[in-house]
Amino acid sequence: MTVVHMVLFRFRSEVTKEHKATFVRELKKLKSLPCVLNGRLIVGGPSITDPIERSKGFEFALLSYHRDRAALAEYQASQEHHHVTSTYLFPFKEDLCRFDFEVDAEDEGLCGFPGIISSMLPFTT
Q: Per the domain annotation, does 7 fall within a domain?
């Protein structure tokens, strides 16, 4: 059963744009880990939420897919993940919010994997 992992990041006000850009660049490298399902890891930001207050100050988000809970645990325990978080995140963060969930079997096709969505459509263009 697919597990979706979401994290929102908020940095302290004195953290530079350059540091944030490095963090995002390093975080995106985690998509190459075998425990990330089909390399499905997306990092986005800054927030374009309107009104911006609804973002509650969170600047960046990560969304990744894992084949099951064990793969998510492997991702969290990996040296690469530890390096990124201990070097570029934890010493500089103001806050973060993590939310993980298992996708219901009937929703597996909605996870956006290539070929699945188009095969569900009644016609293609």
A: yes
| Average pLDDT by stretches of 10, the chain with 125 residues | 96 97 97 96 94 94 97 98 98 97 84 51 45
Closest CA to 49 of 39, 40, 59: 59
Nearest to 67 by CA among 117, 24, 111: 111
The burial class, CB within 10 Å (0-12 / 13-18 / 19+), for 77 is exposed
Q: Does residue 82 form part of some domain?
A: yes
Dmax (CA) for the chain in angstroms is: 51
Element containing residue 98 per DSSP (H, E): strand 93-102
**Domains in the chain, number:** 1
Could you tell me if residue 116 is inside a domain? no
Tell me which residue has tokens 């070097």. 87
On whether residue 12 sits in a domain, the answer given is yes
pTM: 0.85
